[in-house]
Amino acid sequence: MTSVHTSARTPTRGRPSDAPARPIAWALLSRALSVPLILGLVCFLPAVIAAQPGSGVRDTAYWLQLVLTCYAGARLATMILSTRRRLLQGVFWMFVYIAMGVAPFAQVVIGQTPTPMVGPRQDLVTAIAMVLVGCAAYDLGALLASRRPLRRRAPSVRGSGGGKAAVAHPLRLRLLVLLAFAASAFYVLKLGGPAVFFSSRQEINETVAASGVVTEGSNVGSAFIKGFGQVPALLALLFYTRRLATSHRARRTPSTVLVWVALAALNLVVNNPVSNARYWFLTVLMAFVFTAFPSSAAFYRTVLATGVVGALVVFPYADRFRYEEGGQRPVQSASVFEPLVTKDYDQMVMFANTISWVDTRGHTYGRQLTGSALFFVPRAVWSGKPEDTGVRVGQWMGLRMTNLSAPLWTEFWVDLGPAGMVGGMALIGYAAARTDRRYALAVTRAGPGSGSVLAIAAPLIAGYTFILLRGPLLQAVGKLAIAALCLLLITTFREQRAARRR
Questions:
Q1: Contact at 8 Å (CB) between 502 and 248?
Q2: Do 184 and 229 touch, CB atoms closer than 8 A?
Q3: Sign of dihedral through CA atoms 49, 52, 57, 59?
Q4: How far apart, in whole angstroms, are the C-alpha atoms of residue 168 and residue 162?
Q5: Which of 65, 66, 76, 9 is nearest to 43 (CA)?
């Protein structure tokens, strides 16, 4: 009788009675979706691209690119169908599938690239092969991480709120909010008021150039003004969003709601999609979405699945407000795949050009990565500071427009060669998998609660992954370093009691 009464009382705590039904329901749903999803990503879309008319040659580059596209599509499908949320890995494979798979495959088929390829065809073959090897190394690193158990920093008693974890100190979080408003207000006033943030990205750049913070040959001043004007505001919004999403008490506290509303309005000014780069706004959007819905597996899968469609259809046209009306590039497309060969996805061809550049100049043996790590040093102090990898390759190519991508594979290749690229990608895969596992524990179990630093950092890094993978690193590390600094300043490892988190 005792066992009967115990089992009858068990479902009354929370909603565990629903827990068995949800995995079963998702298992049935995933089996129903797995076949069309895998066929769509791995077979249907590559087949449609292969059937497009064009002057492309079906040589070794063609077949290697097809293999890379199918491989990335299979891995992306695995991320979507997985029962565990692999945030950083999912975003990585979404980028690889689109930017290093589908788009370059369309370029090979149609016979047109966004940036001219100056070297021999063999360099493109080498680039595709090295991306494929780098992806395999990334998978190997992730596999090694999955085999190693996670270490717990301190024992925790379930329900008591004990244990130590990285959380935001309440007082320092309020100071971060004040810093966000002060830095963003300075940024807005420096550029002439809020109106300029709703004009165009071109006008923003021209205003920054005219503000006097940019010195000849150095953008450190403008990078700091932009970074501190945007990043603290975003982080503060994410922390308050998580607090509202996870705490009933916070939602009933008018002051918390009012601060969130003010931070949302501030971000609409400094981080809006009109005056910011598309990759940065994508970071803002993904970080906010994954913070607002931290435990929704369905939402995670929806973001990855719809992200492919958005990257193919929406993203190439999202630069509508980049230029003034008279300077906008005309949108002329007879095929949905034409933007993939005429606009943004130059990652693979730039890897090929970088291989050609290295063949003539040699590897830089850590110089480029050192320049990225010391991004904050002005060129007036460091006269020999390296330029962006994309800029250096573009200048060597003789191009006037040198705002070119330098994907992460390229950065490793330039400095460390093939062995360094393989090791670097394996290390990144290992770190991403470990972070994903800790993030899943932070948002699904009794943990540090609404102040969890990892629950904010992981979505932010996931969104910023697009910028890091596209490169160049010298342009990308600035905002990431500012975010790391802000998180470091507000983080504490004190024990958090459960009563505070409710």
A1: yes
A2: yes
A3: positive
A4: 16
A5: 66
The alpha carbon dihedral of 171, 177, 182, 183 has a sign of positive
Token pair 């006033």: residue = 189
Spatial separation of the C-alpha atoms in residues 388 and 403, rounded to whole Å:
9
Residue with the bigger pLDDT between 406 and 335: it is: 406
CB atoms within 10 A of CB 273: 17
Q: How far apart are CA 71 and CA 459, in angstroms?
A: 25
Q: Model confidence over 128-163: pLDDT tens digits?
A: 999 999 999 999 999 999 887 766 554 443 434 445
Q: The whole model's pTM is what?
A: 0.84
CA R_g for the chain: 24
Q: How many CB atoms within 10 Å of residue 490?
A: 24
Q: Which of 285, 239, 295 is nearest to 450 (CA)?
A: 239
> The tokens of 281 are what?
């706004």
Tokens 């149609």 sit on residue: 110
| Residue type for position 485 | L
Question: Which candidate, 284, 276, 196, 218, places its Cα nearest to that of 462?
Answer: 284
Distance CA 164, CA 452 (A): 11
* Separation between Cα atoms, residue 484 and residue 492, nearest integer Å: 14
Query: Which of 499, 432, 493, 477 is CA-nearest to residue 219?
Result: 477
Helical H runs in 374-453? 389-397, 408-444
Residue type for position 201: R
Distance of alpha carbon 443 from alpha carbon 275, whole angstroms: 33
Give the model's pLDDT for residue 12: 40
Given a cut of 80, whether residue 460 has pLDDT beyond it is: yes
Residue 492: helix, strand or coil by DSSP?
strand
388 versus 305: the higher-pLDDT residue is 388
The pLDDT assigned to 11 comes to 41
**Per-residue pLDDT tens over the stretch 177-202:** 999 999 999 988 888 788 878 776 66
Q: Return the residue matching tokens 């850590």.
A: 366
Preceding omega of 472 cis (within 30 degrees of 0): yes
Q: Please report which helix (H) or strand (E) contains residue 167, including its range.
A: strand 167-168
The token pair that represents 22 in the structure block: 């949800």
Our measurement of the distance from residue 329's CA atom to the centroid of its chain's CA atoms, rounded to an integer in Å, reads 26
Q: Contact, 276 vs 231, CB < 8 A? A: no
For 40, other C-beta atoms within 10 Å of its C-beta total 16
Q: Give the Cα separation of 46 and 81 in Å (integer).
A: 20
Distance CA 135, CA 246 (A): 36
What gap in Å lies between CA 249 and CA 247, rounded to an integer? 5
Is the CB of residue 455 less than 8 Å from the CB of residue 242? yes
The alpha carbon of residue 212 and the mean position of all alpha carbons in its chain are separated, in whole angstroms, by: 31
Q: How far apart are CA 256 and CA 240, in angstroms?
A: 7
